[in-house]
Amino acid sequence: MLIQKIVQELQDIPEDKLAELYDLIHYFRLGLSQERTQPRTPGLLKGQLGDAFFEPLPEDELQQWE
């Protein structure tokens, strides 16, 4: 079983490194549960975009992007 292999690996880790490993595992597990509770919402902006959003950028602003 995979959990037994993990425990065997843990036994070979030096005692002074276990706290770091615990933090890694703990926060990884918390992140997994957080992913499930917050579905992805498409888009970055909330609300509506005005027509100005779709207008071409002025030439000087375009040059800054290049």
Could you explain the architecture of this structure?
There is one protein chain. This protein is an all-alpha fold and 66 residues long. The chain is built from three helices and no strands. It has helices spanning 2-11, 18-37, 59-65. The termini are far apart. Helix content is 56%, strand content 0%.
Name its key features:
66 residues; mainly alpha; elongated; DUF2281 domain-containing protein
Shape: elongated
Question: Structural class given helices, strands, pairing?
Answer: mainly alpha
Termini, distance in Å? 54 Å
The SSE string, one letter per element, is HHH
The percent of residues in helical segments reads: 55-70%
Please summarize the sheet with the most strands.
Answer: none
Beta-strand percentage? under 5%
Q: From the alpha carbons, calculate the radius of gyration and give it in angstroms.
A: 24 Å
Mean pLDDT: 84
Q: Which spans of ≥5 residues are poorly predicted at pLDDT below 50?
A: none
Q: Quick one: how many beta strands?
A: 0
Helix segment tally: 3
Brief overview, please?
The chain has three helices and no strands.
Describe the SSE topology.
Elements: H1 2-11, H2 18-37, H3 59-65
Organism: Nostoc favosum CHAB5714
Protein name: DUF2281 domain-containing protein
